[in-house]
Amino acid sequence: MLYQQSAAGTDTTVALAPRYIPTIKPGDVLSVQVSSLSPEATTFFNPYAAITMAERAGSPQTVTPTTPLPYTPGYVVSEEGQIELPLMGQLTVAGLTNSQAAAQIKTKLLDFLKEPTVNVRNLNFQIAVSGEVARPSLFSIPNERISLPAALGLAGDITIYGRRDNVLIIREENGKRTFNHIDLTKRDVFKSPYYYLHPNDVVYVEPGKARVNNADQTFQLLPIIISALSFIAIIVTRL
Predict the structure, then answer these.
(1) Domains (ranges, CATH) in the chain?
(2) Each residue of 99-141: pLDDT tens digit?
(3) More confident site: 56 or 116
């Protein structure tokens, strides 16, 4: 199967699309980890740390594509774009990057802790891959950055029946849902604004004509097979 082909005589270097840096939105679930020179005082600002440690101490579970995603404790960003932290109260974080939110929280913590450090992560950065792939599923992305080829790799790559020249990216942004088609057989994919996926993107791989024809033939033969089995069953019962 051919990927990222170029026209004859073209350059072998392609500029990448600008790196996508996600910003915090209402409904996001944030992990806020605080540390400082005083471990005892720091514990007060990490209320979910004990829950996370208890979950890690439990028996391991096998996760399959049909297994529900585990509950992950964190701060849910309200519709007003705020989270509520111990002692600090309501903080507006919508529209900020994780590093900007961490800097804002660190400034507030200077009133309570000595030399604090803050790490903010988005816990619900998820993408869905469906269609003609080996392992369609919903994937959580821990490092908050993933490209389209990497997402397809998580799903076991496109099957031999999938169309590599017409991969659909469904994205929600600015109150709209957009439908965008990507041709993975061309190197222009690296320049596309859809090369890097956003949270809640849906990647759908369309089946090719061979898969559609096989499915049509199966449905056409199914009534004949059922009738034949029914006829055989009637004969056997009469013997």
Answers:
(1) 29-122 (3.30.1950.10), 126-207 (3.10.560.10)
(2) 999 999 999 999 999 899 999 999 989 999 999 999 999 999 9
(3) 116
Give the chain as a 3 state SS string.
CCCCECCCCCCCCCCCCCCCCCCCCCCCEEEEEEECCCHHHHHCCCCCHHHHHHHHHCCCCCCCCCCCCCCCCCEECCCCCEEEECCCEEEECCCCCHHHHHHHHHHHHCCCCCCCEEEEEECCCEEEEEECECCCEEEECCCCCCEHHHHHHHCCCECCCEEEEEEEEEEEECCEEEEEEECCCEHHHHHCCCCECCCCCEEEEEECHHHHHHHHHHHHHHHHHHHHHHHHHHHHHHC
pTM: 0.70
Residue 187 pLDDT? 84
